[in-house]
Amino acid sequence: MNKIKILLILISLVVLASCNKNQVQEDILAQVEDEILTLTDVYNLYGEDAWNQMTFDEKSETVNQWVNLSLLSNYAKNNGYMEEDSPLRIKIENANKKIISNALISNEINNIEISDEDMYNYYKINQSEFLRPVKEFKIQRIFFYQKSDMEIVKKIIDNNELNYTTAAQKYSAEAIGRNGGYVSKLITKTGSDSLLWNELNKVNKFDVITMPYNDGYIIVRYYDSRENMTNLNFYELKDEIAEIIKQQRINNLYNDLLEEAKYDANIKINL
User: Fold this and answer.
1) Range of 20's domain?
2) Is the pTM of this model over 0.90?
């Protein structure tokens, strides 16, 4: 009975070994001499999802590139390019160090999280850094209650049948039309006419545009502008602030990793 049990166990081990061997063979994508490229390798390099989404040609090109690089690398080793006094060896070692160091830093960067609270606190503390020159506009407008009336007058102006000021005096439905439609207040980004500001900021001086306005419609243009230093609001700056904080944390991360690496290291520098 004991002999039968031992035999069954041995058979089971052979079967398992066989299965594992087949699994390993299936996992091998390419081999050059003793170097092996496995499916696990490409998953680690590209990510499993990214690899599986590649076409056959893309996968084939990737594997062939690895084969070619391996062949050239072996050729270099076999022909003395990696000897102790070879300049190429030193370059390769430095390149390897850069790759490993960048991989370490990149992995840590992926763990950096920046919350809205982090960004808002930075904005409040450093608000003076976010002053930007913002245009303010002096405008003329022609007001209409009916869209169709506005469209008719817009064509008259476009066809140079009347100049803008005369058209305002003749057709505007509001009192300032008598003075050529000149508006006394400046149109600012943060003022009550911010929607109008957005449209004016897209066009050039004296360009005529139309838009809905105060239960009616206007033909409007700006005839002068000036720049005023203004604090942009938090939501306009979120992406910029996130990038600033990220760069700060990357710099801190680099310094922290370097200090940690130095802690137990034996360093000697002879110049």
Assistant:
1) 2-79
2) no
